[in-house]
Amino acid sequence: MSPAAPDASMTPAVARSNDPVVQARLDRARALVERFPDRAPPHFSLGRALHDAGALAEAVDHYRRAAALQPDLMMAHLHAAECALALGDASLARSAAEAAQRLARQQGHSGPLAEATDLLEAIDDLDA
Fold this sequence. Notes:
The structure is a single chain. This protein has 128 residues and is mostly helical. The chain is built from 7 helices and no strands. It has a single domain, classed as Serine Threonine Protein Phosphatase 5, Tetratricopeptide repeat, CATH 1.25.40.10. The longest helix has 18 residues, at 90-107. The radius of gyration is 15 Å and the shape is globular.
């Protein structure tokens, strides 16, 4: 199973940020990161907003920051893996997906465990 290349809706963050609703969400999330730079939830929220807007590289940075601040934040690892894979960074995608998989097992989350496992299989397919 090979991951599809990101479609046009996932790559041009600038085009999607012209949407006032998307821009307002990004602005709110950025303001929270500025106000609380050493807390994981604002970084995770900004990562999610950027991810949804298609700004995957910037999203990865904020997911990784959230995970560094709160290492058990499983979804930060999982979303970082998704973005990294879409960007073609198999090494980062693998390490983030492995962390997500480990945390999902520890925390008893079957849905994210399946997602992390699927991501690792997709990465293996790329490496084959």
